[in-house]
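Anyone else keep sequences and C-alpha cells together like this?

Example one:
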Amino acid sequence: MQYSGNMLGKYIENIKAIKEIILTNIVMIGQTPCLSKDHLEKDNNRRVSVFLERLCDVNADECTTDETGNPYAIIKGKNSKKKPVMLVAHMDTVHGNETESDYIITNNQIIGPGLLDNSLGVGVLMSLPSVLQTLNLSFESDIVLVGLKESLRESNLKSIRDVLSFWKQPVKAGICVEGGELGRLSYFSKSMIRAEIRCTMPQVVGLKDKGGFNAIIVMNEVINEILKLRLPQRPRTNIVFGKFNSGYKYGEAPLTSTLGLEIQSEKYSVAEELYLKMEEICGNVSHKNNTKIRIRKTNNIRAAHLSYYHPLVVSAVQVLDALNIKPSFESSESELSVFLANEVPAITIGIANGKNYHEDNEIVYIDSIFKGIIQLIGIIAEIDRGEWNE
C-alpha cells in the first residue's frame, strides 16, 4: 500500500462510492438489540445473525461461529503459510442487551446510542470485504473478522478469552476496532480492578426516618473513607468513581445505593491491596451504621504492553502520520490486554470522530469514517508485509 497523499486521497474517494453499504452495515448492527425481548438466552444473540448474514452476502469465507457462539468470517489471503491477522470488535454496548434503537442519518452525521462504543466498529468489520473489493486490494495473510458477543460489564472480556482459547492457529497480530476516536492508538493496558459496592438499609428506614439517614448518606461515608486511602505515585495508581445509583422519589429515604468504581495501577498487586482495604472499609461502615454493605469484583485485568518501538506500533504511527492523523496514546483495559497476555502483538484503534459518548444521542461524523477505514487498511497492509512475527 502506497502512502503518498495522492494515493491515500484516491483510496478515500474510492470507498465513498460504497458509502451506502458502509452506513447500512453500521445502522443495521446498531439498531439490532443483542437479544430479543421475549427470549433472553445467550444463544439468541440477534447481532450474531446480522454479522454473519451481511458477511455471507459479500462472499466472505468461512462465515460461522466458534464453540461459544462468537461469529467470525475469514478473508482468505494468497499465502496459506502466513499467520492470520485478527480483527475484533465487541458487539455489546453500555445501553444493554435488549435496547431497541432508531438511528438518524443526516448529511454528515449518524446519531444514535451505542455508535462509538461500538456499533461503528462492528459495522466497519462487516464492510471490510466490500472495501477491499472496491479498492482491488488483497493480502498474503488471512484476515479474520470476529464479532465479540460478551465483553462489557461482568462478562469481563469473556468472548476474546474464548476466541483465543479455541483458535488453533498462531496469530500474527491483533487489531481491536473501536468506533471512536480517530487517532486513538493503544498498545498498553494498566492493571485494573472494577468493583461494585452495594448498600442496603433496614426496611424501617424508608418508613420512619425522613431526616436524612439513608443509603446515600451511608455510601457517602464509604466514599469518604476510600478517599482517605494513600495512593502510591510509583507505580502510578488511581481510583475512579464511575457510577452511582440510588433512590426513586424526592421525598423518600432510599433504601439501597450502588457505587461502581475502578482501581487502576501499573502493578496488579497494588490494585489488589487497595481492593482488600476497601473490603475493610465496607465492613467497618456496615457495622457502624447497622446496614448491609457488600463489595464485589466485576472485572479484573493485569497490566500488559508492547514497546513503543515494536514494529506494529511503529507501522501504525507511520500510517496515521501519512493520513495526517495525530496519534493519541492511551491505556486500553479491553480486548487488547487479553491479546497481549496471550503474547499476540496487538493495538486498539478508533475509526471516526464523534461526541456524546454513551448518551442516547451519540454522534459520529460520517466524513471521518472513510479516513478511519483507510487507516485500518493501511495498518493491515503493514502487518501483512512485515516479517517480524512469522
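And example two:
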Amino acid sequence: MFREEDNKLKAEFKLKNFKEAFAFITEIALSAEQQNHHPKMINEWNVVQIELSTHDASNIVTEKDHKLAESIMEAFKKYDR
C-alpha cells in the first residue's frame, strides 16, 4: 500500500469511520514512539494519509521508514475488512 514518491513513502488508508481512523492513528503513534521515528499523519473523517522520510538522513527514505511502514501495515490488518 505504501509507494515511494518525492523521497517519501506515502500511503492512504480508508477506515470505517472517524473513530476507527483515530484508533488506527493512535496505534501508529505508539509504534512510532517505540521506534523513535515520527511520521506525518493527516486524518480527515475516515481517511488517514501518512508520509514517511528520515529527517536525520536529509529527508530521504531509509530502512527506518520501511520498518515503520511494515508496523503500520500490520496494524491496519485489524481494521481492513
